[in-house]
Each structure stands twice: as structure tokens, then as C-alpha cells.
Amino acid sequence: MFNDAPGNAASGQIAIYDPESNMEKRILLLQGHPDTTERHFGHELADAYAAGAGKGGHAVRRIEVAALDFPLLRSEREWEQGLLPPSLREAQQAIKWAEHLVLFFPLWLGDMPAIFKGFLEQVARPGFAFTGEGNNPFLRKGLTGRSARLVVTMGMPALIYRWYFRAHSVKSLERNILGFVGIAPIHETLIGGVGNLSQEDGEAWLVKLEALGRKGA
Predict the structure, then answer these.
(1) CB-count exposure of residue 208 (10 Å: 0-12, 13-18, 19+)
(2) pLDDT tens across 95-105, in order?
(3) Residue 132: domain span
(4) In angstroms, how far is the first alpha carbon of the chain from the final one?
(5) Where does 11-74 show beta strands of DSSP type E?
(6) For the segment 150-203, what is each residue's pLDDT rounded down to a tens digit?
(7) Is 127 a member of any domain?
(8) Is 17 helix (H, G, I), strand (E, B) or coil?
(9) Domains identified in the chain, total number
(10) Which CATH number characterizes residue 90's domain?
(11) Separation of alpha carbons 30 and 65, rounded Å
């Protein structure tokens, strides 16, 4: 399940690269692309970020969400009282371990893919994402002290998504999920026109992601 190569997450779900010395920041990369049959630009972006983070002396862990086996939640009772699927226990531990989370996903029908949303719903359980007393689990946010970056690829120009659509789904994720559990600040990298990117533009984005990884940003 674990692999010590920073640039290539294992097909066995979770990979880890922990430098023995000069560790600057603990970073968790969450790959939200649903397709496990082939590599996409989002996988290359994650590889570039991981490579930069390794060069910057950061500790890096990676989770390929689509490789995990878990059901979708179907009721509030399941979310509050149901048992966490065994495949997600390590994911929760990795989130708790991290100081900085980087979420990679494509924009599908204006939002994150369903499997990635289902993953976030599963791991953001009361008692983990929230702590409290008695019957109220929402008294204190459970994931404060962590920052995040969203790396979102899309077919439309990023400027149109940001200004015409107001980046609605990304803002919802920031406000209603990540911010709700205490993760802040949250930064965005929106990459549009991925279906028509030239090789030069694609490589430029990889350089940018590697630089972000080196800084742990």
C-alpha cells in the first residue's frame, strides 16, 4: 500500500514519501480523478507537485481516491453513527497527519466528481471533522491548523468559470466542507482549456505546480 517514490502513487491506494531530515511541512495530496484505467493531466500535475515538494524537503503522502473501496453515504444516520469503511481509516489518519492538503480533481458537470464528493462525505465524520460534548458534535472544528490548495482542471476557460460562473462549486467546497471543518487558508489553482492545451502550455503548468510543491504552498 505504501510506496517511497514521491512522483508515482502506487495502485494500492496510498503512497508516502517522508524525507528523513530537513522536513519542512507535512503535505497530503488527494487525487480526485475517478478514472483509474489511464493517466490524465491531473495525475501529471500531482506528480509535478510531489516532485517539487520532495525537493523542498517536505514530507508527502498521496491518496488515489478512485482506488479506494467505499460505499456512498445514503442517510444522515449513516454519516453520524455508521462505521467508517476500513479502507478510509488510513485516509483519516493521513488527513490528521497533514499540515497542508492539496486536492486535485477535474470539473465534471460544474462540480467535483461524485466519487470524490463521496470520499469527503465519508471522512468528514462527526468525532473526526468535528469534536464536541454530549449530543452536539459540532462545538469545535476538528481540522483547524491545516491549510489547503485546490487544483482544478476544466474544459472551459478558467476565466469564464471564475467570473461568469463565480467558481461556484469551488467556493462551495471551500466554504461548506473545508472551511466548515476548520481548514484555512485555502488557495486555488484553476486550469482551463485542458482539452486543447499545447505541449508548451501543459509543461508550463507542470513547472508552476512543481514550484508550488517546492514551497509547500
Answers:
(1) middle
(2) 999 999 999 99
(3) 14-215
(4) 26
(5) 14-17, 26-31, 59-64
(6) 999 999 999 888 888 888 899 999 999 999 899 999 999 999 999 999 999 999
(7) yes
(8) strand
(9) 1
(10) 3.40.50.360
(11) 7
